[in-house]
Amino acid sequence: MPRTFVWHRSRGPQHTPKETAPTGELVKVTQVRSGIGHSWKMRLVLESLGLRHHQDTVIQKDTPQLRGAIKKVRHLVQVSPIKE
Question: What is the CATH number of the domain that holds 65?
């Protein structure tokens, strides 16, 4: 299948809006991209978050340690607050 789209650095949005961290006691972390092709450190962070495979979801308590781990793999996961 021929490539119909080639990514150019000069194309695309010049600025993306900054994501704000959801506030709440619990957060739902969903893995939206695979860890294949990424460094071993990122795969270890995904494992430490409790994410074993693509589209896996875990509910974690919102802590500064969790925020740091999510920041390392923010392009592989999606975070949303849990309403109680």
Answer: 3.30.1390.20
Tell me the C-alpha distance between 28 and 10, whole Å. 34
Q: What residues have CB less than 8 Å from 51, skipping those under 6 apart?
A: 29, 31, 58, 77
Q: Which residues contact 75 (CB under 8 A, 6 or more apart)?
A: 33
How far apart CA 68 and CA 10 sit, in angstroms, is 30
- State pLDDT tens for residues 15-58: 666 666 666 789 999 999 999 999 999 999 999 999 999 999 99
Strands 57-61 and 26-31: antiparallel
